[in-house]
């Protein structure tokens, strides 16, 4: 009996010693791994909080962009979306500029034909910039343009919520001329212009879907105010079908019709017909990408303020019924 107890004590002691040795080995191994890992703050930098001022901006813009009569987005919303395109896209990888607020801060830009019709919204966005700079000096004109566009998009029924950043630097130097397409620019030239900005042909076709909420005023003054699809004020996909079918009461830009027919883009163009969910999924990252053109490092160093952008508006039942059944699944 004594011998048995001794054997048990020895066995238990050996097991305990082994466990302690293993634990020591494990701790040493863990220490070695830790020494070779970067600091956790390097792996995942602490995300800066979106300045509270942008929540105030969003509240004001949501009222500014809504037509309370029909609960669709209004002319100011349409112009704000267009302004975001024109501030950023008058740039390519070989010139300075991009999303820098020069559309607001460089008066020369508003004298250019491609920016005709933006004078009123630019004045409003400049006033808003100055108003909210008095509350928070970090507000820039460049950020105001892009943030306003994001709020305008969700104010339009069916408009998706776009990831939105702030922290851009302003510039009062006018952008380089000739980098925005016109209403009669050939499709091949438009595709090349955007490729030089880092925007693919597929992304380009998704982006021009914003014309669904648009109206034209200056391409043909005899048809001022005519919409570019049959549901102005909504960011649906009717634009893609209407551009090729050209129903009465719809103004089709020559450049849009050319892109719809171009072999490089026609399949993507037709692929969005009746496909709201597919278009939204393509449009949102393309729009975020557009809002970072010319920003060194892209979104690195910027602050994500997507949470300050309102949720997409509840779609009126009449609009839901009009969507293809399979696209609602």
UniProtKB/TrEMBL annotation:
Span of the signal peptide: 1-19
Domain Plant heme peroxidase family profile: 77-301
GO biological process, one term: hydrogen peroxide catabolic process
Residues holding heme b: 211
Disulfides per UniProt: 73-156
Record flagged with keyword Signal: yes
Amino acids binding Ca(2+) 2: 212, 229, 231, 236
Cofactor entry: heme b; Ca(2+)
Superkingdom of the source species: Eukaryota
Record keywords: Calcium, Disulfide bond, Glycoprotein, Heme, Iron, Metal-binding, Oxidoreductase, Peroxidase, Signal
GO MF annotations, alphabetized: heme binding; metal ion binding; peroxidase activity
Keyword Transcription regulation tagged: no
Residues carrying the site annotation Transition state stabilizer: 82
The enzyme's E.C. designation: 1.11.1.-
Details of cofactor binding: Binds 1 heme b (iron(II)-protoporphyrin IX) group per subunit.
Active site: 86 (proton acceptor)
Residues that coordinate or bind Ca(2+) 1: 87, 98, 100, 102
Family membership noted in the UniProt record: Belongs to the peroxidase family. Ligninase subfamily.
PANTHER family: CATALASE-PEROXIDASE (PTHR31356:SF66), THYLAKOID LUMENAL 29 KDA PROTEIN, CHLOROPLASTIC-RELATED (PTHR31356)
Protein name: Peroxidase
Species this chain originates from: Lachnellula arida
